[in-house]
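Okay, can you check this protein?
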Amino acid sequence: MHDAQGHRDRRTGAGAAADPKHIGRAATHIAPIEVGGVNSMLPIACAAEAGLPLVDGDAMGRASPEAQMVLPGLIGVANTPMALADDKGNSIIVDAVSNHAAERIARAVCVELGCQISSADTVMRGDQLADGLVPATLTLAERLGSAVREAHAAHNDPVGAARTMLSGTHLLTGKVIDVSRRTQGRLHPGQRPDRGIGDDAGRVLELGFQNEHLLATRDGETVATTPDLICVLDTDTGAPVTTEGLRYGLRVSVLAAPCDPRWTTPGGLALAGPRYFGYDVDYLPFRQS
């Protein structure tokens, strides 16, 4: 679903566009289009409601703000036909000339239907799943949540537990000192500086985001970029902090974690690298510290 700020579609999932009138066959499985936020949860409910198996994997291994930013696109899978529907019973099928065109059309439809819709798209065959999905990401999400909760309950370091599960690296622990947001085209970009505390005292980390965190600059030096994951966690609980949940004074810990290696290919970077989002920097390969 898109919301009023143009955030990422909450899709029922890759392989879920099931209307035989448009694809000639019924869906046999459902998979999340991304593993971020509610978009990883709605496919579970959809699969249960439809009585279909749920694939343990997703089409990104992260969250991204636009519909064409999926790994199936790298192997030639179209994201249309795309079924869009709102909560009032309105629906539309998008059949576009390209994945980028489908993104623009779907976002315009979303606005006209009240800024919140559901989408089913990116129909795949079973023999395309290995090349088109990131495997076992739902299992990873379950294990990650358990590790963070158990560490917090045992008065251990929940951020450290998340870092270990994600094979990530620490960027900064600090306090949010400002949040700047604006509406620009289809996305909701902004910047947010954090001032370091504790071992990071005296350092400043600035995050650039457009619905998702995309660029991290520490003391003027780029330290992480999309398509690697930049994760902002509540320092005390390890709970994730979304871009819309950022606020002045919040104490956070920022981690970077490696993306699926297919995103670092020329095709992957063309879809979701920092220059696509208008940042004048090249992709910085992930470095674990």
Observations:
- Residues 1-18, 185-190 have pLDDT under 50 and may be disordered.
